[in-house]
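Lay summary

Proteins are chains of building blocks that fold into shapes. Our project writes down both the chain and a compact code for its shape. Here are two examples, one after the other.
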Amino acid sequence: MKKVILVGPSLQALQGFDLSECKSYDIVVGTNKVMESELAEKVDFDVVFLNTTCAKYYCNKEKFIKLEGKTVFTQERHDANKLIRETGYKKIYDIDKTWEKMRKQFSPHVPYYGTAIVSYLKDLCDELFVVGFDFYLNGFSAKKNYVEGYYDLQDKQKEETCHSIAKDLKYYSEHIVNDDKVILEESVMKCYIESRSKHGV
């Protein structure tokens, strides 16, 4: 794996970034329901990472059609196994080891999936460029801040309480920001700094 770009769903953190630049990267990575969003019309994704909720969503063969031709990663091994059984698709893998290691570090909370994806990818590529992540400056409740079609959370309050953005920010400061292989796009870095200030990290 060489130059990789990870594209998140935050409109705020995508401001000023020309999505056509994704073509200059060897591998373009999206997350969760990106193929249901308007980003799929603008970016040719090679890889899609699915959290457990999205893995269940795509167990439906008709819905999975949008992922065909992509390399798919799931959060946990049992998600990958179920998706393979239900769809018959073979290019499905998981980041189970990374996820479980980080869950123990973040306990009793769980890391945001985007943090785990960055942690996983940075060890596999020569360069990881991150765009479209805002570190939930306004929380999940501000759905208007994200690309249309990406978020469909039924219980936003429950989703927010199982995480601790302060722990994710601390993880970034200790393991990601100073890694020479990881580049946070200008708007992403701005959101990172503002979020650290907001949460006192």
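And here is the second example, written the same way.
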Amino acid sequence: MLLYEYSRDAAGLPIPGTQRCFKLNANPRQIGQESIGLGVYLTSIIMYMVIMLLLTLLSIYLIVDNSQQKGYAETYTSYVNDASSCCENACGTDCTYVIKASLAKGSAALA
């Protein structure tokens, strides 16, 4: 099934026998005059691309900013509370373990 563009009269109705193929650079609004569903589909694709472009620009800024501030260091320290083995009130000890990991070596050690 092909979709054709029609010339329209003063009332906006298509004139029979004036069908022609759409140009390659036709915008979704022109296509939407002949097929509303296809026009909405093409418009939503354009909106999706704009949103993805904005999110990409935002994420590139965040990645560059984080790398300049040494946010991706090779070593890091993570503090984990282990409530399953004991509780501070029950055994009187601090239940915080320090995990030091090295991303370069791919290993983690419990201190």
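What can we say about the second shape? Residues 34 and 79 are 61 Å apart (CA to CA).
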